[in-house]
Amino acid sequence: MKFYAFGVYSEESFAGFIQNPDQDRRSVAENLVNKMGLKMLSFDFLRGDYDFIVSCEAESFEQVAGLKMALEASGAGNMVILEAIDMNSIAKIASKASTNYSPPSETN
């Protein structure tokens, strides 16, 4: 399964960047991802509401949740997990619903 993890660094993490601007955060992230049994596909810094995004493959959501827990427990930042989905499979399941659906009538 493919997952995306958007993260926001803590103040301490930014202070670490300032103290050592040449540190390789990608390799640190990849090491942590590998320890969780995941395969990192990409790591990028972002401009906007999130500071970084990690794309990875995992066998279960729990593995990625473990990554989130480890990152947040370390105080390095916060993370949001998104899972890639198969929209065609979802649509096939949804197509089994009655096409004669009508919303409940409004009562006054």
Radius of gyration: 19 Å
Secondary-structure content class: alpha+beta
Integer count of domains: 1
Number of strands: 4
Write the CATH fold name.
Answer: Alpha-Beta Plaits
CATH architecture heading:
2-Layer Sandwich
Residue fraction in strands? 25-35%
- Shape category: elongated
What's the pLDDT, averaged over the residues? 91
- Taken in chain order, the helices and strands follow as EHHEEHEH
User: How widely separated are the two ends?
Assistant: 47 Å
Low-confidence blocks of residues:
none
Helix content: 25-40%
Name the strands of the widest sheet in spatial order: 2-3-1-4
* Main pleated sheet: 4 strands, antiparallel
Number of helices: 4
Q: What is the CATH C-level name?
A: Alpha Beta
Give the CATH superfamily.
Answer: Dimeric alpha+beta barrel
Provide an overview of this structure.
This protein is elongated. A four-stranded antiparallel β-sheet has the order 2-3-1-4. It has helices at 11-19, 25-35, 61-74, 87-94; strands at residues 2-9, 39-45, 52-57, 77-83. It has a single domain (2-84), classed as Dimeric alpha+beta barrel (Alpha-Beta Plaits, 2-Layer Sandwich), CATH 3.30.70.1060. Helix content is 39%, strand content 26%. Strand 2 and strand 3 form a beta hairpin. The longest helix is centred in the middle third of the chain and has 14 residues, at 61-74. The mean pLDDT is 91. The protein is an alpha+beta fold and 108 residues long.
Provide keyphrases for this structure.
108 residues, alpha+beta, Alpha-Beta Plaits, 4 helices, 4 strands, elongated
